[in-house]
Amino acid sequence: MTPYEVFFFSSGAVEEKWTAKTLSSTAPTCTSGSRSAVCCRSGSWPALPSSSIPSAWVDTLSQVALPTSLALGKVGLAFLIVGFVACTFGAALETALSCGYTMSQYFGWQWGKLVRPREAARFHLVVLVSVFVAIVIGVTAIDPIKVTEYSIVLSAAALPLTYFPILVVANDRSYMGEDVNGPVKNTIATFYMVLLVVVALATIPLMIATKAGS
Predict the structure, then answer these.
(1) What is the pLDDT of residues 102-124, one digit of tens each?
(2) Which of 26, 70, 76, 100 is spaced 20 to 30 Å from 122 by Cα?
(3) CA dihedral of residues 158, 164, 167, 172 (deg, nearest 10)
(4) 123 vs 144: CA distance, rounded Å
């Protein structure tokens, strides 16, 4: 539900002409990252203290890989490295494309990864510039962990702004047809909306009060 994911997946769905049947294949892809994160966290908790690295002090990607290397050895570590590359490369593509989608749709430019660069020059330029800016930030002395923390906090604060339009569309029969939200779904969705508003209002004050967890 983070803003960049909403733009990325919704724009990709339009480009690739997704249908209801497509959801069965896209849902596992969308949730694989969260499942992987849960596995990394649950595996790190018992493994890291035994390796003289307290769980609270994990601040590099190599430390995240330590539990897997302890449990599965070099072969497991090799597979994990491939996974790291795939995840980081995929995330870089998603965020860069999301920047292109957002800018192009806001200004009314031609957009789409399936459109030739000559026909959607500004869209592709925004994507390339986004990657370049990320590289520049990456080679500076800025702590990438802090950048990630602040971006997640700001994304959490913006969640109601992306969730509410989705809730409105979900109740529009002209868009959703027979899949329009019913009373049960709306009750659950409204509860979630209230929860997101509470989280959004508390996020920035908590970040300031805790000095971003430090």
Answers:
(1) 999 999 999 988 888 889 999 99
(2) 26
(3) -140
(4) 26
Phi-psi map region of 15: left, alpha, beta (phi>0 left; psi -120 to 50 alpha): alpha
pTM of the model: 0.72
| 110 vs 105: CA distance, rounded Å | 8
Tokens of 142: 């800025």
Distance CA 69, CA 157 (A): 36
Per residue in 169-199, pLDDT (tens digit) is 889 888 888 888 888 999 999 998 999 899 8
Dihedral (Cα; 167, 154, 135, 93), 10-degree rounding = -10
Closest of 89, 91, 94, 98 to residue 123, by C-alpha? 98
Q: What is the pLDDT of residues 122-176, one digit of tens each?
A: 999 999 999 999 888 888 877 777 777 788 788 888 888 888 888 888 898 888 8
Token reading at 49 = 């203290």
